[in-house]
């Protein structure tokens, strides 16, 4: 029943990391008892999403059609009431390849490497595009390098050998690129924060992993730092008034904090932002998809998050920076939650 939310890492007086204990138990158990089909499908979801992205319309038809989606859910042990995530019409990798051919030389404030995580790449391409457009509009040089998925799905399912291989590959790729002058920034908290948490334990090259972690930031963290340096100001954004309710990702709460997202959303002068005092949204990656956990997943959402969203009027923007959180909010309340970066990009004065 552990959600692997990592709250224990900061809440427990003894800092007992139950998420790591769970992953290690799963690893040892599966070495002796084998790995189930459902576990493999969740763990290797990035490969499946890559295949689905070759035919996104067909994939999404199968995920939304009553008959085919029902068959998929029943055969894989997914809750019948849970909606399936849709594949983006174009992957972020393809968008980036197109952008590389249109690069225009300019004087920039800073070079940054964008980590194109597996969830943004195939499921939330629009948020990746918003991030790139926002950073470019603010005069940052967004750089890209071919890299591997984060390994988050393998970690969540106890496939630690696969996660270790990915950690070593990514550390090898980024160790000579990431520095104070060229930080690594990411969009999806569960993915980018693996560089600051699990990679420090898994990677063989500990020194390089620590160096990368020191200069790795969630996108909101990076923007908050640039605000404090005076490189980004509220004068670059709209004077319109908006009210926003924000739900933070569990890993963000446990490993860094929510204040960076709060600062980013408050950048436009007349934006009023409230942090929803919620714990985990209840989705927790694959947890909320599994038929035996669905009811608990929704009960968790009903504790604080869902009522707060339902009680918000239609003109209030709901924001969440985790892909699972946005999915859970949609399933539980029928409201669309926006990533903070999308809200900030839409607030730009153009």
Number of β-strand runs: 7
Report the structural category.
alpha/beta
Oligomeric form: single chain
Please give the CATH class of the domain at 233-346: Alpha Beta
How would you characterize the largest beta sheet?
Answer: 4 strands, parallel
Share of β-strand residues: 5-15%
Principal-axis shape: globular
Low-confidence region ranges: none
Strand order of the largest sheet: 2-1-3-4
- The overall pLDDT, averaged over residues, is 95
Description of the molecule:
With 350 residues, the chain is an alpha/beta fold. It has a domain at 233-346: Rossmann fold (3-Layer(aba) Sandwich). It has 21 helices and seven strands. The protein has helices spanning 7-11, 18-33, 37-43, 45-52, 56-64, 66-76, 92-100, 118-122, 125-137, 152-156, 160-174, 189-192, 198-202, 206-214, 219-228, 250-255, 259-265, 294-303, 305-310, 323-333, 340-346, and strands spanning 110-115, 140-143, 184-186, 216-218, 242-247, 271-275, 317-320. The strands form two sheets. It has a four-stranded parallel β-sheet. A three-stranded parallel β-sheet has the order 6-5-7. It is globular, with a radius of gyration of 20 Å. The termini are far apart. The mean pLDDT is 95.
């Amino acid at each position: 029943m552990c959600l692997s939310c990592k709250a224990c890492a900061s809440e427990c007086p003894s800092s007992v990391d139950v998420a790591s204990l769970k992953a290690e138990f799963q690893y040892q158990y599966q070495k002796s008892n084998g790995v189930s089909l459902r576990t493999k499908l969740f763990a290797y979801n990035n490969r499946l999403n890559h295949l689905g992205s070759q035919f996104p319309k067909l994939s999404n038809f199968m995920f939304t059609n009553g008959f085919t989606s029902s068959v998929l859910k029943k055969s894989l042990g997914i809750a019948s009431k849970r909606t399936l995530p849709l594949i983006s019409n174009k992957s972020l990798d393809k968008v980036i390849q197109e952008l590389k051919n249109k690069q225009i030389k300019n004087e920039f404030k800073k070079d940054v490497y964008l980590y194109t995580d597996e969830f943004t790449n195939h499921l939330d391409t629009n948020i990746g595009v918003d991030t790139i457009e926002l950073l470019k509009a603010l005069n940052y040089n967004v750089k890209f390098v071919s890299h591997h998925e984060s390994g988050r799905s393998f970690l969540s399912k106890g496939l630690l050998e696969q996660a270790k291989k990915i950690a070593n590959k990514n550390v090898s790729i980024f160790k000579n690129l990431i520095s104070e002058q060229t930080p690594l920034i990411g969009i999806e908290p569960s993915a980018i924060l693996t560089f600051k948490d699990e990679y420090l334990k898994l990677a063989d090259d500990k020194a390089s992993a620590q160096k990368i972690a020191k200069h790795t930031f969630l996108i909101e963290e990076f923007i908050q730092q640039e605000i404090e340096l005076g490189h980004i100001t509220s004068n670059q954004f709209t004077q319109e008034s908006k009210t926003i309710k924000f739900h933070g990702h569990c890993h963000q709460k446990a490993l860094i904090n929510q204040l960076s997202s709060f600062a980013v959303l408050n950048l436009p002068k007349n934006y009023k932002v409230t942090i929803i005092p919620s714990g985990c949204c209840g989705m927790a990656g694959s947890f909320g998809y599994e038929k035996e956990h669905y009811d608990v997943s929704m009960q968790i959402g009903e504790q604080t998050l869902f009522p707060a969203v339902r009680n918000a009027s239609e003109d209030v923007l709901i924001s969440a920076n985790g892909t699972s959180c946005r999915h859970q909010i949609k399933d539980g309340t029928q409201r669309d939650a926006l990533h903070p970066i999308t809200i900030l990009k839409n607030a730009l004065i153009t």
